[in-house]
Task: inverse folding
């Protein structure tokens, strides 16, 4: 399930909103890039177990 | 003290149509930053030399931070639940960043007490509040997959160290060109470490505030499309009732889970604490080991990867097989693997690495699955506060784990001359601990209805829950 929408109406009758896909992509990129960097560096270190 | 309007829970209630997949990155933005706590070893030697003190005196900084994590999570858990994730993340960011700034000033002025106060006490409070800040929110946004949701966030805590270690080395190399992380024996200057602290403070401030400002809480009664709460109700041990944090600590279930977490974490720390020297000692013949120093560093890297992956994979798996069974695996299979490590672990390097890696994946899984286990037993009502109180088990294990391993090894000989057999007493103590944890998990039963919060009808009259059987 990639997205999940709230129920049709809110208790206080608020208008539905649409979360921009760009914002979701930006948020995931912001946390994903450093995590990928950390993973890459750690895998590189871990490989020395085989080569070291 | 009233919170500023922009931090109040009412201001962050999501409107219909809000996409819940914006919440995991908000949680990760916080956990990736506070996970730095497990990367302190990269500048430990530099601080020892700069302050002209012992390893223990610098190591205490980390211990203070972990103790403060448990204490602040326990003390502020109810406040976090009441005021919502934005206020909690904002507060955590302020403490965590201030901790780095004060700690950096301590290094700059060579005042060790400032480092204790800054990184240890103030930063430790930020750690505790930050750790629990997104947990109950994630559980509420993902009632269909709570293990996956909390696994993602708590995986971030493991990932934070993976990022902070290489990043810190690189930054210290920029601030002190004489320090080369690739050359063994070079140590960064104190000035480079303080500059690192100030840089991390700025970076973490931006990241954590980003998380604080995109996080939202679901509206009352919200549920994901296609999700039927009755399917959750039918699972063993899962309640739809609510238990307050105040009442939860009076139940045997809370203390059984406290024991489970304490035993699982202590056993994991037993390996993590000694990882690099341990693999060399296991394959030592006389003065020399067949495992080189660089390979030992690689082993630490493998453990970090399995620690992080275990948080996500095992916690997500618990959504399918249930929380109690997955802890049977962590503790029961972990126990068998620990026995294998102690008895046949020294027969081949690949076997040693495999056994240790799986054990560490269970250690990570234990951390990540416990919020969902609490949700199952006590409901979502004050799960953040209950989780906060449970994290005192982590603080206790953070003291007990290294204490057990180091005190046993001290009786076995000098570092650099130990062999596999010298580790056996410590490893069998861990086996005993895992057995205790296994039994504690086995004893977990649904929470008695007398601890459930009363339901209120439209007129506001409380109705007792004893007659209902929502817990299966």
Result:
């Amino acid at each position: 399930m990639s997205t999940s929408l709230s129920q049709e109406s809110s208790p206080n009758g608020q208008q539905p909103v649409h979360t921009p896909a760009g914002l979701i992509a930006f948020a995931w990129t912001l946390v994903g890039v450093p995590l990928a960097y950390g993973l890459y560096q750690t895998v590189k270190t871990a490989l020395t177990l085989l080569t070291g | 003290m009233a919170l500023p309007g922009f931090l109040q829970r009412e201001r962050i209630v999501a409107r219909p149509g809000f996409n819940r997949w914006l919440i995991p990155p908000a949680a990760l933005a916080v956990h990736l930053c506070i996970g730095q706590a497990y990367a302190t070893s990269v500048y430990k030697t530099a601080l020892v030399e700069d302050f002209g003190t012992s390893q223990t005196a610098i190591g205490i900084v980390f211990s203070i931070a972990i103790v403060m994590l448990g204490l602040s999570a326990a003390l502020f858990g109810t406040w976090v639940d009441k005021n919502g994730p934005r206020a909690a993340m904002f507060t955590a960011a302020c403490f965590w960043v201030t901790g780095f700034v004060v700690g950096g000033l301590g290094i700059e002025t060579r005042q060790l007490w400032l480092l204790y106060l800054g990184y240890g006490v103030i930063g430790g409070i930020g750690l505790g509040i930050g750790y629990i800040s997104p947990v109950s929110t994630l559980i509420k946004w993902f009632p269909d997959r709570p293990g996956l949701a909390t696994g993602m966030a708590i995986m971030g805590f493991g990932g934070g160290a993976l990022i902070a270690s290489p990043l810190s080395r690189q930054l210290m190399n920029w601030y002190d060109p004489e320090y080369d992380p690739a050359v063994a024996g070079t140590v960064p200057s104190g000035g480079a470490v303080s500059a690192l602290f100030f840089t991390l403070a700025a970076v973490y401030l931006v990241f954590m505030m980003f998380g604080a400002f995109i996080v939202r809480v679901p509206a009352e009664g919200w549920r994901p499309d296609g999700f039927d709460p009755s399917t959750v109700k039918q699972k063993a041990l899962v309640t739809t009732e609510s238990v307050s944090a105040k009442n939860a600590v009076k139940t045997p279930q809370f203390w059984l889970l406290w024991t489970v977490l304490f035993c699982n974490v202590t056993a994991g720390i037993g390996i993590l604490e000694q990882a690099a020297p341990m693999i060399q000692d296991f394959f030592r013949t006389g003065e020399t080991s067949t495992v080189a120093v660089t390979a030992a560093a690689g082993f630490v890297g493998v453990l970090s990867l399995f620690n992080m992956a275990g948080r996500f994979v095992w916690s997500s798996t618990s959504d399918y097989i249930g929380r109690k069974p997955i802890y049977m695996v962590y503790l029961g299979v972990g126990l068998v693997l620990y026995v294998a490590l102690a008895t046949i672990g020294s027969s081949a390097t690949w076997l040693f690495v495999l056994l240790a890696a799986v054990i560490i994946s269970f250690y990570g899984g234990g951390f990540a699955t416990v919020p969902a286990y609490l949700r199952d037993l006590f409901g979502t009502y004050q799960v953040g506060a209950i989780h906060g109180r449970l994290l005192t088990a982590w603080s206790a294990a953070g003291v007990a784990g290294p204490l057990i391993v180091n005190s046993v090894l001290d009786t076995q000989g000098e570092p650099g001359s130990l062999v596999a057999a010298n580790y056996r007493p410590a490893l069998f103590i861990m086996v005993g601990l895992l057995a205790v944890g296994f039994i504690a998990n086995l004893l977990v039963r649904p929470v008695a209805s007398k601890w459930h919060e009363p339901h209120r009808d439209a007129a506001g009259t409380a109705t007792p829950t004893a007659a209902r059987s929502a817990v299966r």
